[in-house]
Amino acid sequence: MHPDEPTWTSPTPDPDQPRQVRRILRLFRPYRGRLAVVGLLVCASSLVSITTPFLLKEILDTAIPQGRTGLLSLLALGMILSAVVTSVFGVLQTLISTTVGQRVMHDLRTAVYGRLQRMSLAFFTRTRTGEVQSRIANDIGGMQATVTSTATSLVSNLTSVVASIVAMLALDWRLTVVSLLLLPVFVWISRRVGRERKKIATKRQKQMAAMAATVTESLSVSGILLGRTMGRADSLTRSFADESEHLVDLEVKSNMAGRWRMAVITIVMAAMPAVIYWAAGVASQLGGPSVSIGTLVAFVSLQQGMFRPTVSLLSTGVQIQTSLALFQRIFEYLDLPVDITEPEKPVHLDKVVGEIRFENVEFRYDDKSGPVLDGIDVTVPAGGSLAVVGQTGAGKSTLSYLVPRLYDVTGGRVTLDGVDVRDLDFDTLARAVGVVSQETYLFHASVAENLRFAKPDATDEELYAAAKAAQIHDHIASLPDGYDTVVGERGHRFSGGEKQRLAIARTILRDPPVLILDEATSALDTRTEHAVQEAIDALSADRTTITIAHRLSTIRAADQIVVLDSGRVAESGTHDELLEQDGRYAALVRRDAQLEPTR
To answer: Which of 182-191's residues contact partners 24+ apart within 8 Å by CB, and which partners?
Structure first.
């Protein structure tokens, strides 16, 4: 047994299951018209199919014994037509139900993706990327059979069972009672099996999510570089093998859970025709009511026609129980509280001037932790520049992320042109604030596609102008495919400085009036930093700029410099004013000067 696997316990009913089932049914509500058509087709198909045993009875009891060739031909033609109509109806209902099921899956995928797009940055800092991908791919993908065919199968089989029982009663009620004696036991067994598989499915999906996270992290470009340079490739392979081995155990358990009990049901149902023949023969020999050959054959045919959908119904019940585990994992994401929301009546600014104010700002990640920022009061005039410096962990990046609402303040407010950023509509905020960070992200696409992510309708001339301003155009033009060059996973075909200049070009194309520079040059060597800094200077011109500085030489010309210490403003002023104070900033400048020759 896997060391993390809990001891197996007997399945218990889930009190929340009825609410979950109702919620699943609501997913199909927009398609109730199509589902009604499917229901009609299913009912019609089931009713047509049960006519075959009655036609067979007439053939055996009337047409053949009496030598009525015309009646025999007519009845045989009826059986053929019944099969044709049933098949045509089956194809139509499969087409409609599959379309509805795929639309429901599309709705679920889109809802989960849209929900995650609205989550704050804090959610993604504490959630593994592979876990998110697994919910969208594996969990929703695992529900495909349920949402595309289960509903149709349920209605079809239920209709067939009911119609068959009615027809069997019409033929012989005594044989019908014998046939149905064990049905409640079968239902009880299938429910127990379903609960077992649901529990195993929950653990299986968690294990699949863990594997997906491992693959995403270790097989990315960064993961491969780290694994090989640290000599951990074999260790990672062994770790993945252990994860996969655990998944094998869970898959086997999932498929074998209740398999013997379901096999017993199948054996009993397969033996029922023999029981019926035996019961009819014994009753006749003991002087009981006799049953005609036609009636007996027709009854067994109906019985078998009932048992097949009955077994399918029981299997469907087990499948639904298993799928509830997948739905539960999806609903967990759909029910995540959204921290960053647009107000009911958002403010839209047609023209953004760019004044930023931090008014008594406080921020903490949760109620249990202390404040990361406390009592921040800073104003950045439109077109002005603010530099924020301080030791690692002082809250510099967090402060800048409050402006584009990557986080929301927990006290005080941040305003843009006098309007609380929480009151602005998302479109205004996205157009107003551009962010260039140390962690440059590029999509696995061409250079042009990466740039146009900021402005989808940008012309080639606009791309060239932005790239020239960022001092990266000449390099792009020198590549064999130019702007059609694919940048590779996370832009690994380009150097750090080149990626930063691509990010700057992308932001120039966006043309935001407010610019956040979060240590955009901290990971670069001095020569590359100089080229990138020239691009940043071009980008910053005539914009309100907030710079999170690592190298203080880059922010000496800032209109205002704020020194953060443990989330509070320790000092503020211009470069010269702060040097005269000979406080924390002056100490940072001296430390920076000592480190500069080693860079």
So the answer is: 182/268, 183/310, 186/265, 186/268, 186/310, 186/314, 187/314, 187/317, 189/258, 189/261, 189/262, 189/264, 189/265, 189/314, 190/258, 190/262, 190/265, 190/314, 190/315, 190/317, 190/318, 191/317, 191/321
